[in-house]
Amino acid sequence: MNWLKTHRNDVLLIAVLLILGGALALFLYITRQAGGYVSVRVDGELLMELPLREDTQIVLGEEEHTNTLVIENGTARVVEASCPDQICVNQGAVRYAGESIVCLPHKLVVTVEGGQANDVDAATR
Amino acid sequence: MKASKVAQYGLITALALVLSYLESLLPPLGVPGVKLGLPNLAVVFALYRLSWKDAWVTSLVRVALVALLFGNGASLAYSAAGAALSLIVMGLLWKTGKFSSVGVSVAGGVAHNAGQILVAMALLETSRLAWYLPVLWISGTVAGVLVGVVSGVLVKRVPEKK
Ligand SMILES: [Zn+2]
Q1: Residue range B3-157, CATH number
Q2: What is the ipTM of this complex?
Q3: What mean pLDDT comes out for the span A93-117?
């Protein structure tokens, strides 16, 4: 307990940082929304938007630079990719607005977006 | 430059390299290229054993070496931004004289990760990566405690320059 006494400032700082980090996580968790659709961007350019309600499978890119995107049960994930690091595949499924899957080697960003698709649905109901 | 100082620089650079290598073996934290910041240990050591200026030199050498040996363009941008932000925050806390290497490196670890994610957001042109901020924030704190404790021990145990 001597260490705690001599390092009071350090302990305080760590506690404050942990609380801030936790608060940030909590804030993002509370304000999360279910996703409506995913946007697919390559090199920052919007390629397509796919509604999460419709299950589908699509191969993005061409030749040696492909990512296979699957939409299933309201989630999106990359099931297969030709990139060297396979990070996009290991990232798993995303479903909440703001979540994204990134494949840096292929400059691909798949982002879950809120609303829209649902709005269209509500209007037709 | 004295021979003893050269030896210290050699030790610190070797330390940074070994830790960078170790870190390159670890899985990335959500965003490709974003790292935990273990080599910060070398920078904290330089800060407490040598000086503020030496910490900058160590940090520069580390970013350059890592880019040459293990990096690509994106990870260079991340590590440079992370290193700069972390160094500024650590320097400010260190100057107050109120914190040990633990507090300083914890703040540095969080700043390092925040810097990386901000650059990733800019480079990938998406603000959506904010989601990873709390993850990196907490892991930066934990890594910072580890780095701070170990560098504190190193500063005590490694013989002082003659
Ligand atoms: Zn990939």
Answers
A1: 1.10.1760.20
A2: 0.79
A3: 84
